Amino acid sequence: MPSAAFYIYMITYRFSFLFVVCAGILLFSGCQLFSVSDELALIAPTHEGASALGTEAWRVCWLADSGMVQTVSGNLPTFITAARELPVIVAAWPLVSDAPAGWSFKPAGFVQGTGSMREAVELNWQDGFAAELLLELAQKGVDLRRINGGRLAENIVKRSDSKPWLVDRRRLVSDILEGNLWVYSVKLLELNDLVLPLPPGIWYSAWPLADPLTADGSGWSGPLPDGLHLFIRPADGTAVKVWVEGKAPPVLMKVW
Q: Among 48, 71, 129, 193, which is most buried by a count of CB atoms within 10 Å?
């Protein structure tokens, strides 16, 4: 009769054999279950103004698997590699052919926490603000694993009603850097009712989600927050840069 040691040996041998077989199947089947990074396809959003101006390519920035911000320009869809232990943060700017040098739409974006196992990322204009902000912080050495980027992006969209250009960016960055980030760090800027001295025509804001402005002979009237605003007229590619500060008349800084 076989000894107890013999049975223990046989059981150990069988489990060892099964482990080697399973490991081989996972290794050679291309299964990404235990992969430390994912290759993600980027899918671009559409925009009437960008299409009218001729989108030739996209400038894409993302948090690469090295932990550094990486940049590439080209057509979409394209592929990037993202590490699962890092948040997935992507910002993409449409490069339009009929816009003057120095003018650009704000980016589309995507923000998700760690542990991604997706195969594709659909960029959207709502998350561009958060993605751009987080990538700038990463370039300054901020560890984005300490920030719940997905929740931050959702909070920005919710509290701004999908109008992130109304968010007080300076206050938000300050709270993040000081470790005081919470739901009410996302505060909206006050709006000023004013008249912009825009030449006649239909103008698109650099913020893709903003409604087009229709200016007549007396310009355009409506609410805008403090700060720098860029607009472009697709009919002829004319761009303007406007500074708004309180109730003072807007300053037309540049037309080109």
A: 129
When computed from its CA atoms, the radius of gyration of the chain, rounded to whole angstroms, is 25
Residue 116's pLDDT band, with cuts at 50, 70 and 90, is low
Q: How far is CA 14 from CA 2, 8, 24, 64, in A?
A: 17, 10, 15, 42
In three-state secondary structure terms, 66 is coil
- The Cβ of residue 212 has, within 10 Å, a number of other Cβ atoms equal to 14
- All structural domains of the chain with their residue ranges: 37-160, 191-255
Prior bond of 77 cis (ω within 30°): yes
DSSP structure string for 121-133: EE-BSTTHHHHHH
* CB-based burial label for 94 (10 Å; 0-12, 13-18, 19+): buried
For residue 227, the cross-strand partners are 244
Q: Is 98 exposed, middle or buried (0-12, 13-18, 19+ CB in 10 A)?
A: middle
User: Is 0.85 surpassed by the pTM of this model?
Assistant: no
> Which residues, 6+ apart, have CB-to-CB distance to 6 below 8 Å?
none
